[in-house]
Each structure stands twice: as C-alpha cells, then as structure tokens.
Amino acid sequence: MKKNRFSRMYLLLACFTVLGVFMFEVSSGMNYQQQDQGSVYLPFVSQENREEWDAQAEEADCMLIMDSAQQVSVGAVEQFRQIFKDMKVSYDLVDLKKRIPTDYDGYKTVVLTISQLGAMGDRVLTLSDWVKGGGRVLSTQTLEVDDGFRTLQNKIGIKECSGGNGLVDKLVISEKFMIGADTFGVEDAYESALNVSLQDDCTVYMTTDGAYPIPLVWENSYGKGKFVIDNFGLCEKATRGFFAASYSLLEDVCLYPVIDASLFYIDDFPSPVPSGDGQYIREQYNMNVADFYANVWWPDMIHLSKTYGVKYSGMIIENYEDQVSGELKANTDSSRYHFFGDMLMSMGGELGIHGYNHQPLCLNNMDYEGETAYETWPSEKSMENAVKEVLRFAKDLFPEASVSTYVPPSNILSEEGRELLVTKFPQIKNIASIYFPGEQAYEQEFEVAEDGMIEVPRVISGCNLTDYMKMAAVSELNMHYISSHFLHPDDLLDPDRGAALGWETLKAYFTEYLDWLCQAAPGIRSLTGSEGAGAVQRFYQVDIDRVDEADGISLELNGFVDEAYLMMRVNAGEIGTVTGAELEHITGNLYLLHATADRVELNYAERDLGVQ
Ligand SMILES: [Zn+2]
Question: How far is the centre of ligand 1, averaged over its atoms, from the C-alpha of 135 (Å)?
C-alpha cells in the first residue's frame, strides 16, 4: 500500500457491507488445512557454524579485478560482491590502483569490473596470453577506447569500433543465454554500449534491436580459452542476473545455487474494505468497492491462481486507524476476513501479517521526511502490543493457520521494530519487504540474517509492470531462479497504479506476466511465503565443494539438509548419468539441478574439451 493513497483510503473506511450479494462458490465456513510448517523451515545455523563449511572451500576460483580509480568499477564491484556471494563463487579481489596482476596461475576465471583496460598497462597482454593458454575472462563494463582496448580489440572479437557509444533502449536476448529470453525495453535508456561490429565467429547472446543492432553480450574463443564481453553498461541490482548469466558462460560447466520459487504476495489482504465507491470501479462496473472485490476481483484472482498454479500469500491488516497508544481496539467484523482468508488457504495459499494498522513499526526517532500519513509508536511496548494484537486477531479468525511471514507496511521497518520481531515474536520467521533501494525502505537481499530472521524480498509489484520491473524479473529468474511479486487489491483505486486503465486491462497485463513466467520457467515451484523462506534458507546455507575429473564432476554440498537447487550451464560436453540429483532442462544449455543428497555425481556422456 502506497503512502499517498493512505489518507484517501482512510476516509473511505467505515462500516463494511455484509458480503454475499452474489456469494460466488464460497461459504464462510470453508475448510482449509494449513501445511505443517515444521518441515518448511530449517533450524537456524549461525554464521560461526557456517564458516566451518566455508573454510573447507579450496582456493579462490576467480580473480575479481577492480580499479578504485574508476568510478564505474567501484559500483560494479559492489554488485559483484553480492552476485558472487549468492553464486558461491570464491574470489580474490585485486585493485589495480594497488597492484597489477603479473599472473593468473591457479584461477579458473578472471572478471574485470573496469572500463579502462589501459589501467592494466602492458600487463593486459599477460591477461590475453593467459586466455590463449585456456583462461576464461569476463569483461563486465562497457569499455572505453584506450591503449589497453586497442591491444585487446581483436582478441576479444571486435572487428571494428567507431569509438562512439550507442543507445541501449532495447535488450534482445537470445534463448541460448537467459531464462525468459525476450525483447525488453530499458527505462531511462542512454548511450551505454560501445558501438562495435564483431568478427564472424563470435557467439552473440544479446543485442539492441533495429536494423543495426549493437552487440551487448558476446563470447569469443581465443586460443584455448575465451572472452565473454558485456557491453550493455547497465550495472545495478536489477541487472545482476545478466552478469550471473554472463559469468556462467565461462567455465565448461558452471553450477550455482538458486532458490527456485515463484512467490505472490497480496498486501493488505484480507483487510477492512473501503465502503462506498471508487471512481473507476463505479464507472467501469457500476458497483461499489466491496461488491467489486468480492464478485469481480477475487473470482478473477482465484481463476488466475487455478490457471497458473499460483499460491497467494495474503497479508492481514486489522484496521486502517492511526491509533498507536492506549488499549488497541480490536476489529470485531470477521465475515469479510473469513470470506477471503478461508478461500485463500483452501487454494493452497497462506496468511501472514502486515500490521495491526498501517503504521510502520517505527519510533519517534524515525524521520518520515514530511510524510504526514504516518504516526510513530510512542514506545517499544506500544509496537509490541500492536503486533500481539494482530497475531491474536489472526489466530482467533484462523486457528489452524501458522502465521510466520511479516510484510512491513509501506516496506518501512525500523531497526527497533525488526529487533522486536526477532526477540519477542519467534513465530515470525521471515520478513518480506523489498529488493530495491527506496526512500526509507527496508531493503533486503535473499539471505538469512545473523539473528536467524529470513529475508525474502519482493522484487516486482502490481499488474502493469514497467520496463524496469520486467528487466528485473528476467534478471532475477537468472540470478536466483525466483519470481517474487506483490500486488494490492486497492491497485484498482489508485490512479498511480493504473486504476484508470481498469481491472480488465490490468488483469490482461498481469496474465501476460504469468504467461511469460510459465513459458520461461514452467517447472518453477509455486510457494507460499513460509515455503519461500524455507527455500531461501536452503539456498543460503548450501555451499558447493566441486571436484572436476576427466569423466565427470563430483559435488559435495555442505550445509545440505534435504534438498538444494542449482542452476547448471553446460558450455562444453554433455552430462549423461546423474546420481543424487535430478536434472530439468530449462533453455539452451541451462539446466535446473535438484539435489536430493549431499553428494552429487555428474558423469559426462561426452567430454568435449571446451573451446580448445
Ligand atoms: Zn499495505
């Protein structure tokens, strides 16, 4: 729920019309069975114990090269720290400002985060010689034309270079390269790619569109090794998956842990319904808001859930008042909550909490920067009472439900509020806030925090996905093999979220996304909030010990409990028999490996010696 709509929403609230004009196929006493969450969550493993596993890792596989004198490199290395942490790629970071590498012995890969190759001086030849002998190099940033570039130009596959940059307003992705490959628009596009033409034997994975497309990602064999070049320039949280996919082109077989989850959260649901009319709903459906939700929107959402196998996680809110002190008034109107909540759970969905009201868990040290719609809580005790009250409310309504997911209102959560959840409410095991940075936002990575709280960010939202969100969606499918989405029932009331387009249009957009996801990742697991959090635990704590042999690859999965998912790209050779895991082909040479044991053996059916 966005802030600017909050006051209007508040005004709309009043007594709630009893549901049941057209009761759809639902009765309020509907049976549901919540899955036993004992097996969903893993016991918490502290960093201390995890470090033992990490210590077993061999020497670093990758040399990550940065130049702290180049701004672009400083930003890129920040992204790569997280990309490699998630992919479990061990690396040594070398800063060219301090030292220029004189050899690459012992490394499997080298990743460059610089745009000025000239910073390597003559040593750029040491790098190309290493590739010639079998090394694998990924250049991640759009290169500038300097001496270093001119030295490498032919070796990295460039035929001609005009020297200027070209506009990257479209990403045309090859199916060989990424899951969910398609053509994507770029928001705030700029001239972020070097205008080049390539030698004929390069493999091109991504281009701009148009009559003279600029190559954005390509691979060029050089001697016994290869270069992979990223030339799109967009380096941020929303493009991490593009770099993960590029990195996975380097080694003959690349393996990295993924989450494998499709998550759909419905915020503010169930919640008190606004009484009266919404302008667009009245115009388009000639109904009041309450009837529209019950008789149009929800049946459509059920239909989508059934058609696409989506599981909804609904985030309960008890009221929209701004009471933050004193004895908190309980909401006694349960019919609407039963109507939606029972049905949601009978469809395999789950309930979590959004709040007693929509005031973020923040004390008066929080600066809302002029935002007046929010109250702060006068004390930790008052925040505690509020969480206690909404949990009591949920328990009274749905005694069988195990509530373990918390979505912070407006994605805002103070340190104190978070601490409160950890210390006072052990049943709350995961927080689903937001992946991307934003003002005051509680920004997350997919991880297990040091205090055991599982962080499960939502990546995209709403029905009408912007180009930016579509790009983020394809990125995350390749980075973590995840779709993490949220929407609000009251999107239909807010012009900022497309209300004027009307529900039919928004539904069509949402269906488009679901179609894309289903086609891109037909086998991806539809999970609830708690199941998704359990999947994040398994993803986060697994670490891969890998031994490459002539006839195959042996994996030892440290931190493995019952299952793990790895993305596997087979660039050379062919995998035959597999033990300890199942393989599912996704696209191109990408496979999802579902490990069911802590030891996995992959045997080559055919051992191609890569690019030799
Ligand atoms: Zn909300």
Answer: 50
Strands 599-606 and 574-579: antiparallel
Gap from CA of 410 to ligand 1 centroid (Å)? 6
Quick one: pLDDT band at residue 51, thresholds 50, 70, 90? low
CA of 358 relative to ligand 1 center, distance in Å: 6
pLDDT for the residue numbered 12: 39
Rounded to 5 degrees, what angle do the CA atoms 146, 147, 150 make? 85
Q: What is the pLDDT of residue 162?
A: 85
- Rounded alpha-carbon distances, angstroms, from residue 558 to 348, 532, 565: 32, 21, 13
Please give the structure tokens belonging to residue 125.
């030849």
Amino acid at 147: D
Distance from residue 490's CA to the centre of ligand 1 (Å):
9
Average pLDDT over residues 498-520: 95
Q: How many CB atoms lie within 10 A of CB 220?
A: 21
* 268 CA distance to ligand 1 middle (Å): 5
Which stretch of 67-76, 360-369, 550-559 has the lowest confidence by average pLDDT? 360-369
- State the average pLDDT for the chain: 91
pTM listed for this prediction: 0.92
| Residue 34: band (very low, low, confident or very high) from pLDDT cuts 50, 70, 90 | low
**What's the CA-to-centroid distance between 522 and ligand 1, angstroms?**
30
pLDDT in tens, 599-610: 999 999 977 655
Instruction: Name residues whose C-beta falls within 8 Å of residue 540's C-beta, 6 or more positions apart in sequence.
Output: 446, 447, 448
Of the two residues 432 and 5, the one the predictor is more confident about is 432
Region 6-22: what's the mean pLDDT? 36
Q: Give Cα separations from 540 to 92, 544, 548 (angstroms).
A: 21, 11, 23
Taking the centre of ligand 1 as the mean of its atom positions, its distance from the CA of residue 488, in whole angstroms, is: 7
Cα-to-centroid distance, 516 and ligand 1 (Å): 27
Centroid of ligand 1 to alpha carbon of 84 (angstroms): 33
CA-based radius of gyration for the chain = 26
Cα 361 to ligand 1 centroid, rounded to whole Å = 13
Give me ligand 1 centre to Cα 409, in Å: 5
Residue 286 burial (CB < 10 Å; 0-12/13-18/19+)?
Answer: exposed
